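Q&A log
Question type: sequence-to-structure
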Amino acid sequence: MKKLNIDNPFFEAMGRFGDIIIVNLLFILCSLPVVTMGAALAAMYRIFQEMEEGTEGSVPKNFLKFFSDGLKRCTPVWIFMLLSGALLVFDVLFLGYAGMRGVWKAVGAGTGCLILLWEMVSAWLPIVLAEGEKRGMDSLKEAALLAVLHLPATLVMAVLNNILLICLILDVYYVMAAAPLYVVFGFGLTAFLNTKIVRKRTGKASDD
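Response status: OK
Response body:
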């Protein structure tokens, strides 16, 4: 009988998918306090960047190391994004209650622009933080610059990041169907695909 070749594309793909599941579960575990999600995102993207470069080692060990190293640097930026995002959600709810009439139309248009900007920055921020070279407002400025310079990639990444929200807009049923998949591998797969997009469209983010 011919021996199985563990280096063939099928086994490599299965091994990579297994890594994505491990990273996804570690991301969820490290994000449970919510305020630590920024560091967890950065660690997840750092793992996938190393996979793209072919320099990855032990996935669980490296993830926890990157997470621990990034807590102090990433948490303040993430809290800012969390609070600003919550404020934008409140604005949308308030506008829905007040109605889009008169001056509220202009307010609604401004809110829409801010939401778009927030989504664009959010798409690149974990990648910038994963590089470990920027912190605070510098990381936000870098993410905003990359988002504008690579707008097509940014829009694709933003759609991938918001699949659950899109499901919610369509119907709660779709959220219930997608949620178990995200628990197992969804967040990790999204970050993996985003890393692929960045690599394909721009090369390594730090080269920009």
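Response note: The chain has a mean pLDDT of 88.
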